[in-house]
Write a structure and sequence with these properties.
The protein is an alpha/beta fold and 154 residues long. It has a single domain, classed as Phosphoglycerate mutase-like (Rossmann fold, 3-Layer(aba) Sandwich). 29% of the residues lie in helices and 20% in strands. It is built from 4 helices and 6 strands; from the N terminus they run βαβαβαβαββ. The chain has a 6-stranded mixed β-sheet with strand order 3-2-4-1-5-6, with helices on both faces. β2, α2 and β3 form a beta-alpha-beta unit. The two termini are 22 Å apart.
């Protein structure tokens, strides 16, 4: 069984381009709080897929500052990515990774959680919301709709 954490970036501020939007003060606090929740639950990814946008990188950096280090990949395809681009990026996670995190944007993260969830419940993601899932697959390349069960969601 593999495990996946889906995290939407925290509240962002303004910039000249959407890609360059940093977190605002509230967002930085939210990202730190997410990190503390995962520390308390002892849930640490061993691989991270992070959108290359400023707000997603900053969310991950703040949340993970006390986590064990893990490889971080920033595929451009998950910046405001569609459901298919998120699934494709997840399917390319290397063998041996047991728990991955994807930090990305809405509506993609909401669609991803809904599609993977075998109950097909819509899990709307506000900034800094996350979902922790158990995947009923043995290889990331086999990821598909309804292969997951939600362990926790906030």
């Amino acid at each position: 069984m593999l495990e996946l954490i889906i995290l939407r970036h925290a509240h962002a501020g303004e910039a000249l381009t959407d890609f360059d939007r940093p977190l605002r003060g509230k967002g930085r606090e939210e990202a730190l709080q997410v990190g503390k929740v995962f520390e308390e639950k002892n849930i640490f990814p061993d691989y991270a897929l992070v959108s290359p946008a400023a707000r997603t990188i900053e969310t991950y950096d703040l949340a993970s500052q006390n986590w064990p280090n893990c490889p971080i990949v920033q595929p451009r395809s998950i910046y405001n990515g569609s459901l298919n681009s998120l699934l494709e990026a997840l399917s390319e996670i290397p063998e041996g990774v047991q728990r991955a995190i994807i930090v990305a944007h809405n509506p993609g993260v909401s669609f991803l959680a809904e599609e993977l969830n075998q109950a097909h419940d819509y899990l709307g993601f506000s900034p800094a919301d996350w979902c922790y899932m158990s995947l009923n697959i043995e290889k990331w390349e086999d990821i598909h709709p309804t292969c997951a069960t939600v362990i926790s969601y906030a």
